[in-house]
Amino acid sequence: EIAKKDYTLVRYPAMDEIKSAADGGEVYYIFRDGLIYLTAGDKLFVTDDIAGVFSLENEKYTYDCKAQYLYALKNSLPLPKVSFDLKLAAYLLSPTDSDYGFDSLTTKFGKAEYTLNFAAEFGDDESAFNDACKLFFLCKTLYSELEKADMLSLLSDIEIPLSETLSAMEFEGFELDRDGIQAFDRTLSAEIERLR
Questions:
Q1: 183, exposed or middle or buried, with CB in 10 Å at 0-12, 13-18, 19+?
Q2: Is 49 exposed, middle or buried (0-12, 13-18, 19+ CB in 10 A)?
Q3: How many angstroms separate the CA atoms of 84 and 25, rounded?
Q4: Helix H or strand E segment including 62
Q5: How would residue 1 be classed by pLDDT, with cut points 50, 70 and 90?
Q6: Which of these, 40, 13, 10, 36, lies nearest to 28 by C-alpha position?
Q7: What is the C-alpha to C-alpha distance for residues 127 and 63, in angstroms, rounded to an integer?
Q8: Residue 4 and residue 79: Cα distance in Å, rounded?
């Protein structure tokens, strides 16, 4: 059982304030629309210091590291060193599911217990606040499930590094052998005609 959390919002803090709240421990964050929503201790931080968060030495628990790697590459930022990715963990536990969004994961793996000790302001992304708070609970739950299934190393040693590689491939692109593909097409077409 994971204890209920009460979060206080801190908008656009200095990185020292985030580091102090994290106190060398884990940080949980989502990256959405150019902002990071990060929980550490009993604080929910909203920051646009993406490079600062990606550079933190703390263990990082997040959602969709592949999108973060791609963003970092496109913007010449340091790649975050991710310890746990909720979206990848959910995929490993339920590879045939079609939806790995926060609402689906909360329905499937349990309700997160938290209180937001602040009022949202005009323009706030309230779903991002809530998803950032759910992240802690969902990561703890799915970490435990992966541990029971003996799949933690699959996540940390294969899936997370693979996401980094796929992001680099998407960013850099790769060369195609156009002539080879066309030759293969002709070979397949001829074989299909022969089999008819």
A1: exposed
A2: middle
A3: 14
A4: strand 60-62
A5: low
A6: 40
A7: 14
A8: 32
Residue that the structure tokens 């884990």 belong to = 26
Phi, psi for 5 (deg, rounded to 5):
-115, 145
pTM as predicted: 0.85
Side chain identity, residue 82: V
| 134-176 pLDDT per residue, tens | 999 999 999 999 999 999 999 999 999 999 999 999 999 877 8
State both tokens at 74.
């496109």
Residue 85 and residue 62 in contact, taking contact as beta carbons nearer than 8 Å: yes
Both structure tokens of 192: 């299909």
Identity of residue 94:
S
DSSP state of 140: H
